[in-house]
Amino acid sequence: MAQWQATGERPAVAVWTAQQTAAFLHSVRAHRLYPLFHLVALLGLRRGEIAGLMWSDIDLDAGYLTVSHQARQIGSEVTLGKPKSEASNRVIALDHNTITVLRRHRAQSRTPLRSEPVGYLFPNGWGEPIRPDSITHLFRTLNDQTELPPIRLHDLRHGAASLSLAAGNDLKTVQDLLGHASIVLTADTYTSVLPTLARQSAEATARLVLDAARTTATRLRPKRRPHRATGRRLITAGRRTAASIHAA
């Protein structure tokens, strides 16, 4: 943020915070491709994966999305092919909000001839997959219309991973979400995020133990019973004081 505000130049690697991501999604909520950016920002899909996504890849009742192919672009031609790697073939669980977004998108994609949409989630005007480079250009345009720091479309994928880590998910979960072949790749990619999260985790663990210790100490602290003799002494002292006052 400081570098961008001072020079106007975007850092080589940059991601939005949770608040900035939410602000962007809110700013494009009325756009017809809002569900596309929602999926990229929260699930970290590659642009080829989101361009090639089909309705048959999604089970909204079970709440999951399957990545088994992607759109590949050579020049102006777009073809459907295998994912980037074997690890990229994956099943991603969907949260309730994302399911709601996709249900609304499905309802808007219905036609008079079909009660349920088929084919691509985000087709072009001819029913073919949207060109991946057009997604990049559209994102840049929408980003420029906001006051948010400029980032790349691919940075939304990095942001999804950072948000998942910040939410408390472990590296294995993030690896599976992104379709990385190795957890080492995941760890190496997000080394700038992990130290901060590690400190937060350490603080949370210490706080948990300290809170438990305080609770245990309070529960185990012996309760003192009033001593009868003490009671008598107090009464005697009270009588003496009264007698002194009466004598005076």
Distance between the termini: 80 Å
Count all strands and give the number.
5
Uncertain segments: 230-248
- CATH top level class name of the domain at 13-153: Mainly Alpha
CATH topology of the domain at 13-153: hpI Integrase, Chain A
* C-alpha Rg (nearest Å): 30 Å
Which bin fits the share of residues in helices? 40-55%
Largest beta sheet: strand ordering: 1-2-5
Query: Mean of residue pLDDT?
Result: 82
Structural class: mainly alpha
Count the helices. How many?
11
Helix-strand string: HHHHEEEEEHHHHHHH
The CATH homologous superfamily of the domain at 13-153 corresponds to Intergrase catalytic core
User: What kind of sheet is the major sheet?
Assistant: 3 strands, antiparallel
Question: Which band does the percent of strand residues land in?
Answer: 5-15%
Shape: globular
Label the CATH architecture of the domain at 13-153.
Orthogonal Bundle
Describe this structure in words.
- There is one protein chain.
- Strand 1 (58-59) and strand 2 form a beta hairpin.
- The chain starts with a helix and ends with a helix.
- The strands form two sheets. It has a three-stranded antiparallel beta sheet, with no helix packed on it. A two-stranded antiparallel sheet has the order 3-4.
- 54% of the residues lie in helices and 8% in strands.
- The protein has a domain at 13-153: Orthogonal Bundle (hpI Integrase, Chain A), CATH 1.10.443.
- It contains eleven helices and five strands, in the order ααααβββββααααααα.
- By secondary structure, it is mainly alpha-helical.
- The model is unreliable at 230-248 (pLDDT under 50).
- It comes from Amycolatopsis coloradensis.
- This is Site-specific integrase.
